[in-house]
Amino acid sequence: MRGKRVVIRQDALLLAVFAIAVATYLLSVALTGNYVPQLAPVLAQEELVQPMIVDSRPLMLNGIDVGEVTLADEVLLRIRTAAGGYSAEQRAGIVADRLQQMVTAGLQPDQVHAGMMAGSAVVMAGDQLIVTADPEHARLNATAPENLAIAWAENIANALGGESGEPQLAADLPQPSEWRPAEPYQHKDVPIMSVRRGIRVGMARVAGPQSKVGQVQAVAQFESRLAKFGDVEIYVPISTRVPGKSLDRVNECAVVGLADLEIL
User: Fold this and answer.
1) Among 68, 164, 233, 255, which residue's Cβ finds the most Cβ atoms within 10 Å?
2) C-alpha span between 239 and 216 (Å, rounded)
């Protein structure tokens, strides 16, 4: 008799669980209108999103070993030459690994653009290098490096499902600014004092920074004879009216005009 009670209780429990399941199903149908159970939105989305795989593969093209870089099995670009001790296939693998890291980090199509780096046309993701469109690859593609970089950038962006960003191929060279002196320049006339061959009286115009021109009292004239050039006269702005044993030269000033008159 005791064993029968246990069986009856288990049957009642199973019946209760079944009733709850049926009630839950009927409630779901009433709320959603669907007779087939649906996946939760988050689960459905996770099942539909497939990871984007960047890969590389070898290819024989016109009898030459090249390396292809692909995204979701779509060819983005081909590396046709060896460089830096790496074969074309190895170079393609390096580019693929670099691009895969960017894609995994959430690279967007409009972040991909052609640009300039160290004077070379390149494909970039923001400010990060993807691949260089070197002159040799441009020649093999019968185009210019800048055009090749643009084409590669468009291929990558299209494979990501969008359009590439605006090319940034113009060199950002600093524009020359107008030179401005540290202080105003001015000029003044001072007497010429000749040494070694008597005294000459004349006038010279000197120019330079205002504070330096104020120190000039005269211009010392030195005369010399060079075998190949003949007589040579040298004019030096000085801070005294008469040249002494030591030349009191005023730096940063220059003689810009002469009006010489010799007194015998």
Assistant:
1) 164
2) 5
Which 8-state DSSP code applies to residue 182? S
Tell me, yes or no, whether 150 and 197 share the same domain: no
Q: Which two tokens stand for residue 62?
A: 């016109």
| Same-domain status, 212 and 127 | no
7 in any annotated domain: no
Give me the pLDDT at residue 161, please. 93
The string of DSSP letters for 11-51 reads HHHHHHHHHHHHHHHHHHHHHH--SS----HHHHHHHH---
- Per-residue pLDDT band for 44 (boundaries 50, 70, 90) equals very low
| Other residues' Cβ atoms within 10 Å of the Cβ of residue 66 | 20
Domain boundary among 142, 159, 176: 159
Are 60 and 153 within one domain? yes
In a domain, 5, yes or no: no
- Residue 210 domain-assigned (yes or no): yes
Domain that holds residue 252: 185-262
In a domain, 12, yes or no: no
What value does the mean pLDDT take over residues 106-124? Answer: 94
Interatomic CA distance for residues 107 and 149, integer angstroms: 18
In the prediction, which pLDDT does 171 show?
A: 59
Q: Number of folded domains in the chain? A: 2
Span 233-245, average pLDDT:
82
Helices and strands (DSSP H and E) totals, the chain: 6, 11
Q: What is the pLDDT of residue 83?
A: 86
Q: What is the pLDDT of residue 6?
A: 47
202 vs 262: CA distance, rounded Å: 7
Instruction: Sort 169 into a burial class: Cβ within 10 Å, 0-12 / 13-18 / 19+.
Output: middle
| pLDDT number for residue 264 | 46
